[in-house]
Amino acid sequence: MRTLFAFRKRLPRRTEITLGVIGFALFLAAWQVTAMSGAIRPEFLPTPGAVAQAFVLLFTERDFAGDIAISVGRVWFAFFLSVIIAVPLGLYMSTYRAVGAFFEPFIDFIRYLPVPALVPLLVIWFGVGEASKIAVLWMGTFFQLVLLIAEDNKRVPSEYIESGHTLGATNGQIMRHIIIPAALPNMVDNLRITMGWCWTYLIVAEIVAANSGIGHVIWSLRRFVKTPEVMAGIITIGIIGLLTDQAFRFAHARLFGYLRR
What we know:
It is a single chain. The protein is an all-alpha fold. The chain has helices at residues 13-37, 48-61, 64-95, 97-111, 115-126, 130-154, 158-166, 171-200, 202-206, 214-222, 227-255. The chain has 11 helices and no strands. It is flat, with a radius of gyration of 22 Å.
Protein backbone atom coordinates (compact mmCIF):
# COMPACT_ATOMS: atom_id res chain seq x y z
CA MET A 1 0.00 0.00 0.00
CA ARG A 2 2.84 2.40 0.80
CA THR A 3 4.32 1.68 -2.64
CA LEU A 4 1.02 2.58 -4.33
CA PHE A 5 0.90 6.00 -2.65
CA ALA A 6 4.60 6.86 -2.78
CA PHE A 7 4.96 10.59 -3.34
CA ARG A 8 5.56 11.38 -7.07
CA LYS A 9 6.83 7.87 -7.78
CA ARG A 10 6.07 6.00 -11.00
CA LEU A 11 4.07 2.78 -10.83
CA PRO A 12 4.64 -0.32 -12.97
CA ARG A 13 2.57 -0.23 -16.15
CA ARG A 14 0.68 -3.37 -15.15
CA THR A 15 -0.28 -1.79 -11.84
CA GLU A 16 -1.57 1.34 -13.58
CA ILE A 17 -3.70 -0.74 -15.96
CA THR A 18 -5.07 -2.82 -13.07
CA LEU A 19 -6.05 0.29 -11.12
CA GLY A 20 -7.72 1.75 -14.19
CA VAL A 21 -9.75 -1.41 -14.73
CA ILE A 22 -10.77 -1.46 -11.07
CA GLY A 23 -11.90 2.16 -11.31
CA PHE A 24 -14.10 1.41 -14.33
CA ALA A 25 -15.48 -1.72 -12.64
CA LEU A 26 -16.45 0.23 -9.51
CA PHE A 27 -18.14 2.88 -11.64
CA LEU A 28 -20.17 0.24 -13.52
CA ALA A 29 -21.10 -1.47 -10.25
CA ALA A 30 -22.30 1.81 -8.74
CA TRP A 31 -24.26 2.55 -11.92
CA GLN A 32 -25.88 -0.92 -11.86
CA VAL A 33 -26.85 -0.68 -8.21
CA THR A 34 -28.31 2.80 -8.62
CA ALA A 35 -30.30 1.83 -11.72
CA MET A 36 -31.69 -1.34 -10.10
CA SER A 37 -32.57 0.38 -6.83
CA GLY A 38 -35.54 2.14 -8.42
CA ALA A 39 -34.44 5.52 -7.07
CA ILE A 40 -34.26 6.79 -10.66
CA ARG A 41 -36.74 5.81 -13.35
CA PRO A 42 -35.35 3.58 -16.16
CA GLU A 43 -36.28 6.22 -18.74
CA PHE A 44 -33.67 8.48 -17.16
CA LEU A 45 -31.05 5.98 -15.99
CA PRO A 46 -31.06 2.60 -17.75
CA THR A 47 -28.86 -0.25 -16.56
CA PRO A 48 -25.44 -0.87 -18.16
CA GLY A 49 -26.93 -4.01 -19.75
CA ALA A 50 -29.65 -1.98 -21.45
CA VAL A 51 -27.08 0.47 -22.78
CA ALA A 52 -24.93 -2.40 -24.06
CA GLN A 53 -27.96 -3.85 -25.85
CA ALA A 54 -28.75 -0.44 -27.35
CA PHE A 55 -25.12 -0.18 -28.47
CA VAL A 56 -25.49 -3.42 -30.45
CA LEU A 57 -28.79 -2.28 -31.95
CA LEU A 58 -27.22 0.97 -33.16
CA PHE A 59 -24.74 -1.01 -35.23
CA THR A 60 -27.22 -3.56 -36.53
CA GLU A 61 -30.19 -1.29 -37.24
CA ARG A 62 -28.87 2.24 -37.85
CA ASP A 63 -25.53 1.92 -39.71
CA PHE A 64 -23.83 3.47 -36.69
CA ALA A 65 -20.41 2.49 -38.03
CA GLY A 66 -20.95 4.90 -40.92
CA ASP A 67 -21.88 7.71 -38.52
CA ILE A 68 -18.76 7.01 -36.47
CA ALA A 69 -16.58 7.17 -39.58
CA ILE A 70 -18.13 10.50 -40.60
CA SER A 71 -17.62 12.02 -37.15
CA VAL A 72 -14.03 10.78 -36.90
CA GLY A 73 -13.32 12.27 -40.32
CA ARG A 74 -14.77 15.63 -39.33
CA VAL A 75 -12.84 15.78 -36.07
CA TRP A 76 -9.52 14.76 -37.59
CA PHE A 77 -9.88 17.12 -40.56
CA ALA A 78 -10.66 20.09 -38.30
CA PHE A 79 -7.89 19.11 -35.90
CA PHE A 80 -5.32 18.73 -38.69
CA LEU A 81 -6.38 22.11 -40.10
CA SER A 82 -5.88 23.65 -36.65
CA VAL A 83 -2.45 22.07 -36.24
CA ILE A 84 -1.00 23.15 -39.58
CA ILE A 85 -1.96 26.76 -38.84
CA ALA A 86 -1.46 26.91 -35.06
CA VAL A 87 2.00 25.31 -34.88
CA PRO A 88 3.86 27.70 -37.21
CA LEU A 89 1.91 30.71 -35.93
CA GLY A 90 2.63 29.75 -32.31
CA LEU A 91 6.32 29.35 -33.13
CA TYR A 92 6.51 32.80 -34.68
CA MET A 93 4.47 34.39 -31.88
CA SER A 94 6.92 33.10 -29.27
CA THR A 95 10.06 33.79 -31.31
CA TYR A 96 9.31 37.28 -32.63
CA ARG A 97 7.66 39.49 -30.04
CA ALA A 98 6.18 41.78 -32.71
CA VAL A 99 4.21 38.83 -34.13
CA GLY A 100 3.01 37.89 -30.66
CA ALA A 101 1.99 41.44 -29.83
CA PHE A 102 0.03 41.65 -33.10
CA PHE A 103 -1.89 38.36 -32.84
CA GLU A 104 -2.19 37.61 -29.13
CA PRO A 105 -4.86 40.19 -28.13
CA PHE A 106 -7.13 39.09 -30.98
CA ILE A 107 -6.63 35.38 -30.22
CA ASP A 108 -7.28 35.98 -26.52
CA PHE A 109 -10.49 37.80 -27.42
CA ILE A 110 -11.75 35.05 -29.74
CA ARG A 111 -10.90 32.13 -27.45
CA TYR A 112 -13.14 33.48 -24.68
CA LEU A 113 -16.16 33.58 -26.97
CA PRO A 114 -18.46 30.57 -26.44
CA VAL A 115 -18.32 28.52 -29.62
CA PRO A 116 -21.98 27.39 -29.41
CA ALA A 117 -23.02 31.06 -29.50
CA LEU A 118 -21.15 31.45 -32.80
CA VAL A 119 -22.98 28.59 -34.50
CA PRO A 120 -25.75 30.76 -36.04
CA LEU A 121 -23.13 33.11 -37.45
CA LEU A 122 -21.06 30.23 -38.85
CA VAL A 123 -24.18 28.81 -40.50
CA ILE A 124 -24.85 32.19 -42.12
CA TRP A 125 -21.26 32.34 -43.39
CA PHE A 126 -20.72 28.71 -44.42
CA GLY A 127 -24.22 27.28 -44.85
CA VAL A 128 -25.50 24.04 -43.38
CA GLY A 129 -23.04 21.73 -45.13
CA GLU A 130 -19.74 20.29 -43.99
CA ALA A 131 -17.98 23.65 -43.91
CA SER A 132 -19.97 24.98 -40.96
CA LYS A 133 -19.39 21.77 -38.96
CA ILE A 134 -15.64 21.88 -39.62
CA ALA A 135 -15.63 25.57 -38.68
CA VAL A 136 -17.24 24.83 -35.30
CA LEU A 137 -14.66 22.14 -34.52
CA TRP A 138 -11.80 24.31 -35.78
CA MET A 139 -12.81 27.31 -33.69
CA GLY A 140 -13.08 25.14 -30.60
CA THR A 141 -9.50 23.95 -31.10
CA PHE A 142 -7.34 26.45 -32.96
CA PHE A 143 -7.41 29.48 -30.66
CA GLN A 144 -6.53 27.35 -27.63
CA LEU A 145 -3.83 25.39 -29.41
CA VAL A 146 -1.95 28.34 -30.84
CA LEU A 147 -1.41 29.87 -27.41
CA LEU A 148 -0.33 26.53 -25.93
CA ILE A 149 2.24 26.11 -28.71
CA ALA A 150 3.53 29.63 -28.12
CA GLU A 151 3.88 28.98 -24.39
CA ASP A 152 5.71 25.69 -25.03
CA ASN A 153 8.31 27.50 -27.09
CA LYS A 154 8.68 30.33 -24.59
CA ARG A 155 9.70 27.73 -21.99
CA VAL A 156 12.76 26.67 -23.99
CA PRO A 157 15.71 27.90 -21.87
CA SER A 158 17.34 31.01 -23.29
CA GLU A 159 20.72 29.38 -22.61
CA TYR A 160 20.03 26.93 -25.44
CA ILE A 161 19.43 29.76 -27.88
CA GLU A 162 22.44 31.73 -26.68
CA SER A 163 24.62 28.67 -27.13
CA GLY A 164 23.36 28.31 -30.69
CA HIS A 165 24.20 31.93 -31.47
CA THR A 166 27.63 31.48 -29.90
CA LEU A 167 28.31 28.53 -32.21
CA GLY A 168 27.30 30.61 -35.22
CA ALA A 169 23.87 29.13 -35.91
CA THR A 170 21.39 31.19 -37.89
CA ASN A 171 17.91 31.97 -36.61
CA GLY A 172 16.45 29.32 -38.90
CA GLN A 173 18.92 26.70 -37.66
CA ILE A 174 18.17 27.58 -34.04
CA MET A 175 14.46 27.19 -34.75
CA ARG A 176 14.86 23.82 -36.47
CA HIS A 177 17.59 22.25 -34.34
CA ILE A 178 17.11 23.80 -30.89
CA ILE A 179 13.71 25.35 -30.24
CA ILE A 180 11.45 22.81 -31.96
CA PRO A 181 13.23 19.67 -30.60
CA ALA A 182 13.28 21.13 -27.07
CA ALA A 183 9.60 22.09 -27.15
CA LEU A 184 8.31 19.08 -29.09
CA PRO A 185 7.49 16.81 -26.09
CA ASN A 186 5.24 19.46 -24.56
CA MET A 187 3.78 20.27 -27.98
CA VAL A 188 2.72 16.64 -28.48
CA ASP A 189 1.12 16.65 -25.02
CA ASN A 190 -0.83 19.76 -25.92
CA LEU A 191 -1.94 18.21 -29.21
CA ARG A 192 -3.34 15.33 -27.17
CA ILE A 193 -5.22 17.74 -24.91
CA THR A 194 -6.66 19.86 -27.72
CA MET A 195 -7.77 16.74 -29.60
CA GLY A 196 -9.98 16.04 -26.59
CA TRP A 197 -11.38 19.56 -26.80
CA CYS A 198 -12.15 19.05 -30.48
CA TRP A 199 -14.26 16.00 -29.63
CA THR A 200 -16.21 17.94 -27.01
CA TYR A 201 -17.53 20.27 -29.72
CA LEU A 202 -18.69 17.42 -31.95
CA ILE A 203 -22.27 17.43 -30.63
CA VAL A 204 -22.53 21.18 -31.15
CA ALA A 205 -21.20 20.82 -34.69
CA GLU A 206 -23.54 17.98 -35.65
CA ILE A 207 -26.88 19.21 -34.32
CA VAL A 208 -27.12 21.96 -36.92
CA ALA A 209 -28.93 20.63 -40.00
CA ALA A 210 -26.92 17.41 -39.89
CA ASN A 211 -28.14 14.07 -41.21
CA SER A 212 -25.14 11.97 -40.20
CA GLY A 213 -22.56 11.60 -37.46
CA ILE A 214 -22.59 10.53 -33.83
CA GLY A 215 -23.94 13.88 -32.69
CA HIS A 216 -26.82 13.67 -35.13
CA VAL A 217 -27.69 10.18 -33.87
CA ILE A 218 -27.65 11.31 -30.24
CA TRP A 219 -29.69 14.43 -30.95
CA SER A 220 -32.32 12.62 -33.00
CA LEU A 221 -32.77 9.79 -30.48
CA ARG A 222 -33.21 12.12 -27.52
CA ARG A 223 -36.44 13.39 -29.09
CA PHE A 224 -37.95 9.97 -28.49
CA VAL A 225 -36.45 9.66 -24.99
CA LYS A 226 -34.39 6.65 -26.07
CA THR A 227 -32.02 7.08 -23.17
CA PRO A 228 -30.10 3.79 -23.62
CA GLU A 229 -29.29 4.65 -27.24
CA VAL A 230 -28.35 8.22 -26.30
CA MET A 231 -26.01 6.96 -23.59
CA ALA A 232 -24.55 4.40 -26.00
CA GLY A 233 -23.75 7.22 -28.42
CA ILE A 234 -22.12 9.28 -25.69
CA ILE A 235 -20.11 6.27 -24.51
CA THR A 236 -18.97 5.73 -28.11
CA ILE A 237 -17.41 9.18 -28.11
CA GLY A 238 -15.72 8.37 -24.80
CA ILE A 239 -14.31 5.09 -26.17
CA ILE A 240 -12.96 6.76 -29.31
CA GLY A 241 -11.48 9.54 -27.20
CA LEU A 242 -9.85 7.05 -24.84
CA LEU A 243 -8.30 5.10 -27.71
CA THR A 244 -7.06 8.31 -29.34
CA ASP A 245 -5.60 9.53 -26.06
CA GLN A 246 -3.79 6.24 -25.50
CA ALA A 247 -2.40 6.40 -29.03
CA PHE A 248 -0.99 9.86 -28.30
CA ARG A 249 0.47 8.58 -25.02
CA PHE A 250 2.07 5.62 -26.78
CA ALA A 251 3.56 7.85 -29.47
CA HIS A 252 4.88 10.24 -26.83
CA ALA A 253 6.50 7.39 -24.90
CA ARG A 254 8.13 6.00 -28.04
CA LEU A 255 9.34 9.34 -29.36
CA PHE A 256 10.49 10.84 -26.09
CA GLY A 257 11.42 7.82 -24.00
CA TYR A 258 14.59 9.61 -22.88
CA LEU A 259 12.42 11.87 -20.67
CA ARG A 260 11.51 8.88 -18.48
CA ARG A 261 15.03 7.64 -17.87
